[in-house]
Amino acid sequence: MLEIFYNRRSTRKFLNQSIEEDKIKKLLTAALLSPSSKGLRPWEFIIVDDPLKLEKLAICKPHGASLLKHAPLAIIIAGDKSKSDVWVEDCSVASVFIQLEAEALGLGSCWVQINRRYYNDDITSNEYIHDQFNIPERLEVLSIIGIGYKAAERQRLSDCDLLWDKISINNYKDPKIF
Fold this sequence. Notes:
This protein is an alpha+beta fold. The chain has helices at residues 2-7, 21-33, 51-57, 87-104, 125-133, and strands at residues 43-48, 73-80, 108-113, 139-148.
């Protein structure tokens, strides 16, 4: 499993190649297997593979979403705020499960933050996506994961990238270096 963590890097450029149905099902299975507080499973997922809809997603905020225009697949992760007060955390875990499964399947992915972001000065990214995708009001969009075959491989992380000084044992800044 650590190999997946070392190898997974954000991918913003994808090959023009669709993702096989069995791989999409595995991505969704990973999402549905993600843990949630009290087992409430407040998350819901919208699969987007229509190029015109991907273009709409790519403009959901001024910066950081344009990669979705050329992604063959995006998964919108939304949480039911009426079901759980920790829907953000539960949807975050589901988002990461999707990304880790994408890497395991040989796919690249990138998280696009939607919660607390804006489409323009008057409309939040969440409101814009609700309008474009007919999402019920009880759901809040946390993120969108863009997924596809990597156009280029990025250098994997190494042990030199590990920030061991961020670890404390028993008390803050009581170091224990491994």
